[in-house]
Hints:
Elements: H1 3-18, H2 23-34, H3 38-59, H4 61-71, H5 78-99, H6 101-107, H7 112-130, H8 141-153, H9 161-171, H10 176-185, H11 188-201, H12 211-237, H13 242-253, H14 255-272
Amino acid sequence: MELLEAILLGLIQGLTEFLPVSSSGHLELGKAILGYTPQEGLLFTVMLHLATALATLIVFRAQVAEILKGLFSFTWNEQTQYSLKIIASMVPAALVGVFFEAELSALFDGSVLFVGWMLLVTAALLAYADRAQSGEHKIGAREAVIIGIAQAIAILPGISRSGATIATALLLRTDKSQAAQFSFLMVVPLILGKVAKDLMEGTLTEASMDWTPMIAGGIAAFISGWWACTWMVQLVRKSKLTYFAWYCAIAGATTPKAVDVSNAAMAVRTFVR
């Protein structure tokens, strides 16, 4: 993996993880165009997701500190209830990951046409949610589970996780700031859990891997993710999701061209080697 390519993919991951345009879909398109092998792509994807998880914790550091303080007071308080809601929201995605891991892995193997279709679904969801009436409801247990189901569906490459969860929260008449915060915090335990699982199973062990591009890509993802997360919270408050709906629609409709670019890139790489 080239250093410049790693930084480029890191920037893509950092921006698209928080902006509602599907980070997994864009990474699959990027890896297909650049011609990465599945093993290299898997390890690199995990590195980038760790970087964006760290960016999330930094952006919401005050809220995270408050939640942890409430948890360690060992009383039934608002922070403990919030933590349980996050756990409840994780259950659907965790179940899908456990029972359909093989099927999901097949979708993360250069299936750019599938990504294109799912980007169109994301576009429709964002456009519909942006027209929903604003509400001031807090997220309860029921809302947390429903948002969690949206997150489970967003495991599919091309369905924006942030877009699906924020849109679902808005359709449930949730406060906009609460919708963005819950959407970004709910994924952090899932990312850390998935990485821990892969490490224990030895899935991510690769002695011959060049770690310099990996680390550079991670740093790029962290910096761009920090900026994108902060900006996205402001956009949700101002109901500006329609712009991203248009972007996803255009990206999804032009995905077949990415296939042609991918084939051309692979041909060039083969010729150079």
